[in-house]
Amino acid sequence: MKVGSLHSKIFLSQKPVRAVFTFLSKQNQISCEYKRENMNKFYSIGVLCAVILCAGIGAAQAQSPNPATTVVDPAITPLSVMGVVTTFTTETQLVVVTTSAGNQVNVRLNAQTEYMRIPPGEKTRDKFIKIAATDFGVGDMVFARGRMSQDQKNLPAREFYVMSKGDIAQKRDREREEWRTRGISGTINALNAEAKEITLDARTAEGTKPMVIAATANTKFRRYAPNSIRFSDSSTGAFSDLKVGDQLRGLGTRNAEGTRFTPDEIVSGAFQTVGGSITEINVDTKELKITDVQSKQVVTVSVGKDTSMRRLTPEMLAALTPPKPGTTAVPAPARGSGDLQEMFDQLPALTLAELKVGDSILVSSSKGSEPARVTAIAVVGGVGPLLQGAQSGRSQAVALGAMSLGGP
């Protein structure tokens, strides 16, 4: 089905709320891809538009769109555009809105334009706040309604809805803090489909600990996309998607003993971690080869622009390395179990040009059909002592690779 016809059916549907969310789910898949450095801004685009449309902004009241118009960007419809403000000229009342796909639309404001700001988390129009024509700026996320020109370059706005970049940042901070304090992560060890229980080897600052996750009818399931550990790329899932060996992150409540967990939300994916010494580097093709320490096989690793590359610090290496007999282990940094993702994110950045033959690395990737070739989601350098040590050290290395799973 063409996007244009899908858009028309949504607004002429007798069940607009359901249709809106169907449409937005398709738009949001694309919104998360616009310039990775702007991903945080687009994280709430689907929410923003759902709020606007479900609050009674009915395009069915407008003229029927021209069926000859071809919509090539799902963020641009015959009746609207959504994106980020990249230019705003006060004198001419011209706003340049850049969509998630990188297309630009000139949104022209006028005396009849209605301006509203949507506070984070609000879902009803009576909670929207009226603003002036100057109460927004570059970087803010907007949804403008009007009549799109045939060339999809100009739109005179009747309605202009704003979610400021400051509000979005605050919302992101609150979500991150919640996952930090109420989150768990680890590897699925066993599944009980009848009881909807998951036995997790949970990663904590004190090491791996078993925990039973008891899903309820209200638990939301999400699944990481192939070759992506970004939470914003995940899609709706189900308990049946889970497999033993999957990596899992959960948001919810622990019992007092820390042995059971009731999840509000679960996101999971089929990932693997391989580690070994680099035997060959090709900077031009952005590929390298390693000898996997477990299988002793050569694995070709493809490094892309979205690969997260980090180097282990000496302090963390000392904390993760198993102690020699008769010595005392270096204590890990004093952090809560929900901070492991933050620990990974704060490791120093690493580039392909810094690596050399002989270096030991860990590589996280999706499980694919070719064990000898992987596309790296995350690469961690400086892990030689972990791979060369005892089994406990290699287990720490695998856990470290799994830390790269992304959260909100």
Please describe what this structure looks like.
This protein has 408 residues and is of the alpha+beta class. It has 3 domains: 3-163, Nucleic acid-binding proteins (OB fold (Dihydrolipoamide Acetyltransferase, E2P), Beta Barrel), CATH 2.40.50.140; 175-269, OB fold (Dihydrolipoamide Acetyltransferase, E2P), CATH 2.40.50; 271-402, OB fold (Dihydrolipoamide Acetyltransferase, E2P) (Beta Barrel), CATH 2.40.50.140. The chain is built from 9 helices and 20 strands. The strands form 3 sheets. Strands 2-3-4-8-7 form a 5-stranded mixed β-barrel. A 5-stranded mixed beta barrel has the order 9-10-11-15-14. The relative contact order is 0.10. Residues 1-69, 332-340 and 390-394 have low confidence and may be disordered.
Keywords:
single chain, 408 residues, alpha+beta, OB fold (Dihydrolipoamide Acetyltransferase, E2P), 5-stranded mixed barrel, 9 helices, 20 strands, globular, disordered N terminus
Report a brief summary of the structure:
With 408 residues, this protein is of the alpha+beta class. It has helices at 3-12, 16-31, 39-42, 45-54, 165-182, 314-320, 340-345, 384-388, 391-402, and strands at residues 76-77, 80-89, 94-98, 104-108, 114-117, 129-130, 141-146, 154-163, 183-192, 197-204, 207-214, 220-223, 235-236, 247-254, 260-269, 271-282, 287-292, 298-311, 360-366, 373-381.
Q: What is the subunit organization of this protein?
A: single chain
**Unreliable stretches:** 1-69, 332-340, 390-394
In helices, the fraction of residues equals 10-25%
Count of domains? 3
Radius of gyration: 24 Å
